[in-house]
Amino acid sequence: EGEETVIRGFLDGDGVGERFDFCMCNPPFYEQDHEVENRTGHRPEPSAVSTGSMDELRTEGGELRFVEKIIDESLELKERITVYSSMLGHKRNYDQILRILKGRGVSNVTTTRFCQGNTTRWGVAWSFSSEALLYKVPDATQQSTNTNKKSPSKPLQGKILTTTQAPTLAEAKSHLLSALTPLALQLQPLEGESDSESLWKLVAQDNTWSHQRRKRREAMRVATVESSGELASEQGTPSKRCRTEPVLSAAVSLKSCDGGWTLALSYLGGIAGKDGVNQILQYVKNKLKESSE
Questions:
Q1: Which whole-number Å values give the CA distances from 259 to 159, 252, 285, 291, in the listed order?
Q2: Taking a C-beta distance cutoff of 8 angstroms, is the pair 152, 266 a contact?
Q3: Average pLDDT, consecutive stretches of 10 residues, N- to C-terminus, the chain (293 residues)
Q4: pLDDT value at position 242?
Q5: Contact (Cβ atoms closer than 8 angstroms) between residue 207 and residue 272
Q6: For residue 148, what are the CA distances in angstroms to 110, 140, 141, 192, 229?
Q7: Dihedral through CA 33, CA 35, CA 39, CA 45, nearest 10?
């Protein structure tokens, strides 16, 4: 029964008059039995004891395939269920499910995150109903615990250049833009620039900074490996994805501070999250450090 459908089997054959407000899923997280026990060893143990049976914990294709089936069935059922939702136990699957939804043309989506003890889970909900505008629901991961107002994202910042390396703002901008060029980001200048600070809005359509990290690791490996034929076969071209929204958008500030130039990035949106902002900041630091050596 579960092999054929996930939710369609619970509805009537034609189901013309039968509708539901929502469906809520806590999917089997794992694909193989051994994954249930296969923790990295670097994460703290969960504070709650797992009480699920093996059939409840694992399924063919894991939670990714299970939730993908729900998405495919929701495309057939449409408004027979007003809101479809599921929890996800792995961040990589959460990111992939958002890509699948966008690839299927589903834009009425909202997300959240559940944190209990040492365990983090992610939630995704989507709808085809014009009465359930989920994209207007505030993202709970960006909400303050003490107010209903959306909290501004605290910027991540770091010193990237000294005044010896870049005596003027124009030179600091030149260094920064040169470091960012390989990432193919969109940088839109913002109002408010002064003699000591430049402002942009950064938009990334793809996660190019992770590709750059892989290239650097490959370059280091090439230095120690004689055969280049084997390495060439491992380097792939990132696949093109159907995407309706950027992977990341952030506010960028380059300003004079403490005898140098500080880069500050504030997360605005996108599935890459604040991790993506932190990764870009670290990428710039590494890139400028390499160029100065």
A1: 10, 20, 17, 20
A2: yes
A3: 66 69 81 50 49 56 88 91 92 92 90 80 90 72 45 79 93 94 90 82 89 58 52 40 70 89 91 90 92 77
A4: 44
A5: yes
A6: 17, 10, 12, 29, 57
A7: -50
Residue 63 CB partners (closer than 8 Å, separation 6+): 27, 28, 29, 30, 88, 89, 90, 93
Going from the N-terminus, what domains does the chain have, and what CATH number goes with each?
8-142 (3.40.50.150), 156-223+243-292 (3.30.310.80)
Asked whether the whole model's pTM tops 0.85, one would answer no
165-174 — which CB contacts under 8 Å span 24+ positions? 165/292, 166/261, 169/195, 169/196, 169/197, 169/198, 169/254, 169/256, 169/261, 172/254, 172/261, 173/198, 173/254
- Using only C-alpha atoms, the chain has a radius of gyration, in whole angstroms, of 23
Q: How far is CA 252 from CA 11, 72, 184, 207, 272, in A?
A: 50, 38, 15, 17, 16
Res 28: pLDDT: 74
pLDDT of residue 4: 63
